[in-house]
């Protein structure tokens, strides 16, 4: 008996299983438009004039929130986004940026370390400092914003494992 004859009856399962696992991933929350530039904050910081007024979809972890009389600035540490536009904090950070919201934003709704995905338009840059180092922050005027809950971050990641042998899992 060869290995092909063992798995031949299971071939019909391949497509349904692949479709089922793909269906678990939530759809992206923001649509990419013709004006959307595929660039990371670090690239914009090096040449902000090249990407002026481009639309971006960025996500990351909240560092700080500062309220002003007519707007709020949320300092973010950017991370790559998955296919559902969730920040992937297990990946390497892609630089910092400042998300600018019109009006007042409650700082308690954006706690340090909270994960957010924004859609907005680049609006220049600003030099400031991170500790003792000078840093250039891209500025993004936010048009849409989504704060991720723990349940949303887990969604689309089924706790399914395939393998042969014996294992013990504690959840």
From TrEMBL:
Residues 1-20 form the signal peptide. PROSITE patterns: PROKAR_LIPOPROTEIN (PS51257). It holds the Pfam family Slp. This is Slp family lipoprotein. InterPro entries: OMP_Slp. The lineage of its organism: Bacteria, Pseudomonadati, Pseudomonadota, Gammaproteobacteria, Lysobacterales. Keywords: Lipoprotein, Signal. It comes from Dyella caseinilytica. PANTHER family: OUTER MEMBRANE PROTEIN SLP.
């Amino acid at each position: 008996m060869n290995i092909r004859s063992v798995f031949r009856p299971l071939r019909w399962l391949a497509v349904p299983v692949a479709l089922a696992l793909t269906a678990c991933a939530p759809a992206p929350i923001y649509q990419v438009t013709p004006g959307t530039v595929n660039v990371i904050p670090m690239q914009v910081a090096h040449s902000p004039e090249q990407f002026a007024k481009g639309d971006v979809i960025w996500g990351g972890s909240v560092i700080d929130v500062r309220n002003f009389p007519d707007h709020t600035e949320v300092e973010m540490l950017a991370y790559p986004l998955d296919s559902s536009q969730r920040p992937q904090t297990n990946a390497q950070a892609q630089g910092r940026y400042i998300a600018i919201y019109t009006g007042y934003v409650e700082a308690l709704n954006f706690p340090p370390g909270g994960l957010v995905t924004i859609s907005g338009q680049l609006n220049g840059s600003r030099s400031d400092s991170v500790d003792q180092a000078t840093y250039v922050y891209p500025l993004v005027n936010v048009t849409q914003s989504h704060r991720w809950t723990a349940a949303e971050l887990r969604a689309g990641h089924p706790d399914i494992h395939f393998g042969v042998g014996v294992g013990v899992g504690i959840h």
